[in-house]
Amino acid sequence: MSVRPWRDIHRRQSRQIMVGNVPVGGDAPVTVQTMTNTLTSDAKATIDQIRRCEEAGADIIRVSCPDEESTAALKQIVRAARVPIVADIHFHYKRALEAADAGAACLRINPGNIGSSARVQEVVNAAKANNCAIRIGVNAGSLEKDLLEKYGEPCPEALVESALDHIKLLQDADFHEYKVAVKASDVFLAVAAYQQLAEAVDCPLHLGITEAGGLIGGTVKSAIGMGSLLWYGIGDTIRVSLSAEPEEEVRVGYEILKSLGIRTRGVRVVSCPSCARQGFDVIRTVEKLEERLKHISTPLSLSVLGCVVNGPGEARETDIGVTGGGNGKHMIYLSGLTDHTIANEDMIDHVVKLVEAKAAEIEAHKAAAEQAVAAE
């Protein structure tokens, strides 16, 4: 493959921390996070939702711990989860102590909001004792009053100053296993704040456009904001904040990373917007294929093109391709080469089987390669 320097992303060098068994920052992959929306005190409902998020590919999952009932349920939740659990704490420092003791891999807490330096030290001591990281989460909607008075309104400088103030409290307590977010619902504000913070600190950065909106609007805002930052190498872990089920946040997060070539997971679909030339219903076909291929985690590519204008060219670049043809017969491409035709009524089932077989083949080759390395 030819060298494509215009595709290169030079990632900002941050130091690495551990969130449970997941490395964040440094040369570790950019992780995808989400947050449950069940009552954490309802351990069964929360675990069920965590399982769906894990199946979608979540690397880290956050749960809210606003009360004692929630932190009491946390031990059971942490024990059942297959990925690290972050406990979301706001003002009650005792909830942070309880969450750390319950096995949370990370505490989302702003040290400046929990009171005295003695309380901060208590939280730090609990985090150290339980190998627990901390995520500082600055939000434009909840900036400190003194910063709003100083700057007049939420602005990048105010967000960054808030983050640096919180960081100093942890550093003064000799705690360094932290990551930081400076979120805003305004894309320009968030991007500018992250850019400034990236210049000022070496810790991992957690990206997010907060209160981004529903599935479509929130996806667009998140892709523009986080995509811009990731493109310039800023960001070590991401959460797409949507008014949608948390597993959808995970899927959108991976789509953002896939579009930039940062991480690959599952089937990358290349499809046309459809037009009068289409030989089959492209829109409905893609909808059905995306739904039926959600279970595939192996990275591979599939092109679905309605006609032969761009179809053959796109199919040459994908593992599996289909282009619309005449008389209800469509061309199937394998590894970029024409292979066979398929009737319209059999196409979706046939493509699903081809993708599943290709995924199994890739996984078998991967396992064989790993065994060969282990045997050396």
Question: What's the SSE pattern?
Answer: EEEHEHEHEHEHHEHEHEHEHEHEEEH
Q: Please give the domain count.
A: 2
How far the N terminus sits from the C terminus, by CA atoms, comes to: 29 Å
Number of helices: 12
Overall, the morphology is: elongated
Give the CATH architecture of the largest domain: Alpha-Beta Barrel
The CATH class of the largest domain is: Alpha Beta
Question: Over all CA atoms, what is the radius of gyration?
Answer: 23 Å
CATH topology of the largest domain: TIM Barrel
The multimeric state of the shown protein is: single chain
Q: Strand order of the main beta sheet, please?
A: 8-7-6-5-4-3-10-9
Strand residues, percent: 15-25%
Mean pLDDT: 94
The counted number of beta strands is 15
Secondary structure elements and their pairing?
Blueprint: E1 17-19, E2 22-24, E3 31-35, H1 43-56, E4 60-64, H2 68-80, E5 85-88, H3 93-102, E6 106-108, H4 117-129, E7 133-139, H5 145-151, H6 156-172, E8 178-183, H7 187-200, E9 206-207, H8 215-231, E10 237-239, H9 246-259, E11 267-271, H10 282-292, E12 300-305, H11 311-315, E13 320-323, E14 329-334, E15 337-343, H12 347-375
Parallel strand pairs: 3-4, 3-10, 4-5, 5-6, 6-7, 7-8, 9-10, 11-12, 12-13
Antiparallel strand pairs: 1-2, 13-14, 14-15
Helix pairs in contact: 1-2, 1-9, 2-3, 3-4, 5-6, 6-7, 7-8, 8-9
